[in-house]
Design goal:
25% strand
Length: 227
């Protein structure tokens, strides 16, 4: 008799244990916040509050995913859609936080046919209606790669980008520039740095102080309005 009661008690305890365990597991699965390794918070820093919130809303799908298995590549794809971003750093703060630090690009030029768009140092177009700074205008349908290469050549030369008032891009891949002193320089497709340095020397030469035109399109041939 005692043995039968003991078995019944064991069965009851076992059933009670299963009930508690199943209830706990159900709650655990139904409540994403109870997953200690799931992402419960994403912090975005580096941009304006409005832009940070916009990017955060794009990343909401990553909430409650496992921080161990979340794909940084997928996050990068979303971030790269925002042209304002120059660089970013993604940090996993265990057990449940993502920190994303963003470095915005600098505005360096303005698109001539649309005053609402600026060109970033990353070569991308950014909508910006309230820029108070003056930027050189770019005329022509340029692509990012060509523009960034040209900008690198300017930085390698005696000029700086701040010396320029206007840039003209031609379908042939050639650039003209107008300096802040209103000197128009017509550059060849190749030997850009050499041509820029030569132009800089001509502008600095007192014999050409009234010169407003330098044509270097033809190799080994210089045309100025002093001729």
């Amino acid at each position: 008799m005692h043995q039968s009661i003991g078995k019944k008690n064991k069965i009851m305890i076992y059933l009670l244990f299963l009930l508690i365990l199943s209830t706990t597991n159900a709650k655990f699965l139904n409540d994403p916040n109870s997953l200690s390794s799931s992402i419960s918070k994403i912090n975005i820093t580096g941009l304006t509050e409005t832009k940070n919130l916009e990017i955060l809303s794009n990343l909401n799908n990553f909430l409650y995913q496992s921080i161990f298995f979340i794909s940084k590549d997928e996050i990068e794809k979303i971030l790269e859609k925002h042209n304002i971003i120059q660089e970013f750093n993604i940090k996993k703060i265990y057990p449940s936080t993502l920190n994303i630090e963003i470095k915005p690009t600098k505005f360096i030029a303005r698109v001539s046919n649309n005053v609402q768009y600026l060109v970033g140092a990353n070569g991308k177009l950014i909508e910006e209606k309230h820029s108070n700074k003056s930027h050189p205008y770019i005329f022509g349908e340029f692509d990012s790669q060509n523009f960034l290469l040209f900008k690198q050549n300017i930085e390698k030369s005696s000029f700086s980008f701040s010396n320029l008032k206007t840039l003209y891009f031609f379908p042939s891949g050639r650039w003209d520039i107008l300096t802040n002193n209103n000197v128009l320089i017509k550059l060849p497709r190749e030997y850009i740095v050499t041509s820029l340095n030569l132009s800089h020397k001509i502008i600095a030469n007192d014999n050409f102080k009234d010169n407003k035109f330098i044509d270097l399109r033809v190799k080994n041939h210089l045309v100025t309005n002093n001729e």
